[in-house]
Amino acid sequence: MGNCCVTPSGSFSEKKNAKKKTKPNPFSIDNAAANGSGGGNKLTVLRNPTGHDISLRYELGRELGRGEFGITYLATDVETGENFACKSISKKKLRAAVDIEDVKREVEIMKHLPKHPNIVSLKDTYEDDNAVHIVMELCKGGELFDRIVARGQYTERAAAAIMRTIAEVVQVYFGFGPFLMLLN
Asked: Is residue 65's pLDDT more than 60?
């Protein structure tokens, strides 16, 4: 009676987990080397990156946030000391062609966006063997959702001002087609 919650060895769940294998990432550098292609088939995501070694220009610091594909770090320009945000996207996480196209599209859209006080501007792009690094303006204001929750109630005038700003940004993005992934 005391062992009613113990799972016997060789249980169904262990057998199920033993059969379950993760698929190798066909775009991974590790996979290319394992399959005898000698790593010569390197995945290239960006068309014209600023460079290949981000450490020559930026020092990556503490983690600022995480997303589905990447981690955003504080990036400090080693020459000027100016702070930026650097979204580093691991190439191992880019499993499908659509994922690669999404990253390309994000960078291309950011390159062509006009300067606007409520739109993050792109500074540089880097691509090495393991990741794509997107260096952009650092936003210190926090998340809009967190501000709304913290404030609680808004007057109609304050809510209208926020909605006006959001509508202006959407209007700028509208000319670039699908942009939902950029509205963070």
From this structure: yes
